[in-house]
Specification:
The protein is an alpha/beta fold and 438 residues long. 45% of the residues lie in helices and 10% in strands. Helix 6 packs parallel to helix 7.
Length: 438
């Protein structure tokens, strides 16, 4: 059965194309620097938003028109797999991602759930034998079911901790079987509502124990994928322990887990933490912990996680600047953790949305590469910090200075010659590159 019969394989037609179902800027075979666009961008399709999201929001019922909506249970799960691989092929998507409950319904017990999961994984494995699309990462949903009301690895209920561990154990087995390049942990309910009823030390110690168990089991079964933590400051928990990248790094280093983990950074989560997308990417990059990206954007007029498809070219440019500086994403990729707007309810809108996001990051890639190639920002920054290349600045960098020598240097200094940071000029320069890249 064809689920998207009105859509042919999406082709690159160039910037002047008027075809809504064609790429204008994303040409997967185009060489940028030392690799193709496809190799740089490593796009992934999010199974949950693309194939399970029905349009429900806090004020309205589901309204998405999907050819599989009439089915239930395992028949629905199987139809979604068929639709997914048709979608991947027509979009020419290199990767996809999923939570366990996205692909198979839960049973009354974990044993029944695992049986359902095995059946669908069998089906996915068969499709992957003839598909170019690989599994970027999978994860366990440990936030939707009422059992996770107080968290999963940080729950006050030891039975829930055990159940969560069993879900991740199964997830790692599935990851190895399907060749996942990463495994993600998102602590949606790993946090607290009030300190009045929370043993924060125990919860964080237990979270570290949980991660160590995952590391140990991955070694035991021979899963070699990269472990990723996806930071988010809030929603659904008031305060989540993986607030942002910096908080996550401190946690990992405290428990000696930093050799095993990198970060999966989501744009909308960055803004919820009061940061820009590029800030979170840079914090991860300069600490050697940039692993993968959930590509989306939020709405600045709304204070929650709206998960919109990315179309802000300035944001995609600055994001790709960090990714190129990182040497790429390694085993990671750009997964579209984004959903169509509730008013975009037709099946074809799924393609239109992904095309918009892929084109936006293709533009960002080309502009960022040109900025780096021309040393535009590098030269400005190097010049701005040139005082550390000689004299007292060089002594500071070399560790030769102390408070006494620094005091001696400035004690009789009457004038300090600062220079303009020229941030407006630099922003205009990025715009100039954006406007002249094509």
């Amino acid at each position: 059965m064809a689920y998207f019969e009105n859509v042919s394989k999406i082709q690159y037609e160039g910037p002047t194309s008027k075809n809504a179902l064609a790429f204008k800027f994303y040409n997967p075979e185009e060489i940028i620097g030392d690799r193709t666009m496809e190799e740089w961008l490593r796009f992934g399709v999010a199974y949950w938003h693309t194939f399970t999201y029905d349009g429900t929001d806090p004020f309205g019922h589901g309204n998405m028109i999907r050819p599989w909506n009439h089915l239930k249970g395992m028949e629905l799960a199987k139809a979604r797999v068929e639709a997914a691989f048709e979608f991947f092929e027509k979009l020419n998507a290199p990767f996809f991602c999923f939570h366990d409950v996205d692909i198979a319904p839960e049973g009354e017990t974990l044993r029944e759930t695992n049986k359902n999961l095995d059946e669908i994984v069998d089906m996915i494995e068969d499709y992957m034998k003839t598909s170019k699309t690989k599994l970027l990462w999978n994860t366990a949903n440990m936030f939707s079911h009422p059992r996770f009301v107080h968290g999963a690895a940080t729950s006050c209920n030891a039975d829930v901790f055990a159940f969560s561990a069993a879900k991740v154990k199964k997830g790692l087995e599935v990851a190895k079987r399907l060749g996942a390049e990463n495994y993600v942990f998102w602590g949606g309910r790993e946090g607290y509502e009030s300190l009045l009823n929370t043993d924060m030390r125990l919860e964080q110690d237990n979270l570290a124990r949980f991660f160590q168990m995952a590391v140990d089991y991955a070694k035991e079964i021979g899963f070699s994928g990269q472990f990723l933590i996806e930071p988010k400051p809030k929603e659904p928990t008031k305060h989540q322990y993986d607030f942002d990248v910096a908080t996550g790094i401190a946690f990992l280093k405290k428990y000696n887990l930093d050799p095993y983990f990198k970060f999966n950074i989501e744009a909308n989560h960055a803004t919820l933490a009061g940061h820009t997308f590029e800030h979170e990417l840079r914090v991860a990059r300069i600490n050697g912990m940039l692993g993968s990206v959930d590509a989306n954007q939020g709405d600045p007029l709304l204070g929650w996680d709206t998960d919109e498809f990315p179309t802000d070219l300035n944001a995609t440019t600055l994001a790709m600047y960090e990714i190129i500086k990182n040497g790429g994403l390694g085993k990671g990729g750009l997964n579209f953790d984004a959903k169509v707007r509730r008013g975009s309810f037709e099946p074809e809108d799924l393609f239109r949305a992904h095309i918009a996001g892929m084109d936006s990051f293709a533009v960002g890639l080309k502009v960022a590469h040109k900025l780096i190639e021309d040393h535009v920002l590098d030269d400005f920054i190097a010049n701005r910090y040139r005082s550390y290349n000689e004299g007292i600045g060089k002594e500071i960098i070399q560790g030769k200075a102390d408070f006494k020598t620094l005091e001696e240097h400035v004690l009789d200094m009457k004038e300090f010659k600062n220079e303009s940071g020229r941030v407006e000029e630099l922003r205009a320069l990025v715009n100039q590159y954006l406007l002249t890249a094509f």
